[in-house]
Amino acid sequence: MPKAEHIGLTSHQVQSFIDDGFVKIENAFSNHVAKQCRDELWADIGLSPDEPENWIQPVVRVGSKASPPFIEAANTPLLHKAYDQLVGDRRWLAPKGLGTLPIRFPSPESPGDDGWHVDMSFGSDNPDFMEWRANVKSSGRALLMLFLFSDVGPDDAPTKIRKGSHATIASELLPYGDAGATLRQISANGYASTEDCEVELATGAAGTVYLCHPFLVHAAQPHRGERPRFMAQPPLLPRGEFDPALPPSPVQVAIRQACGLTL
Hints:
Strands 1, 5, 9, 11 and 12 form a 5-stranded antiparallel β-sheet that branches. A 3-stranded antiparallel β-sheet has the order 8-6-10, with no helix packed on it. It is an alpha+beta fold. It is 25% helix and 14% strand. The chain has helices at 11-20, 31-45, 68-74, 77-87, 165-173, 183-186, 250-258, and strands spanning 22-25, 59-62, 101-104, 133-134, 143-148, 160-162, 181-182, 199-201, 209-212, 218-219, 231-232, 235-236. Helix 1 packs parallel to helix 7 (250-258). The longest helix is centred in the first third of the chain and has 15 residues, at 31-45.
């Protein structure tokens, strides 16, 4: 892995994040760390990579992991630099673990969780998850992140991403102000406003990380491959609320452009 002083996103990658809503970072953490994470997850779910006859469910979820390999995966110098570049210098909290972790197995059955959606950022104390909320400032969430702990090809249930959908969602959240919209409100039309967006598949080798805008519309899909897919989809948490005295980060630039606001 390159030394910290030589790493970081290029200006093209940062602009692509603003325009498309995500950036793919290869070799964000090592294959060795990825294997350590997979081994722990196999043990956690009580299954084995050598006993496919026991892979009965299309998806098995692990809530979160805070052991050293997962902390190491989330806190490499490359990722810390990228967090700074997209969210703002140290305007984020270093992850102390990763979650949730949906482990998807080859199966002809629908996983039952493959609808298009945007992850909500606050209000999760409400027992009705459809009342969880997001606002145009993205309070409570700096990034959506996808960590690949196994190789993920087109048939291995890669997350589907609607390119540029973050801009549409930002403009739809604007009228709701700081209070934000609930998941029930923002999903009322089934995200039809983003259905014409080009779809990108979050494929890559183990050790790949996708850093995504918090408003990016995405979806799971069935696994049609041969080997289970291991990934985590955690948020990157902000250090505090939006501070207008600071220069806007690429996350904020994308929101302001979508809402027709001055930068």
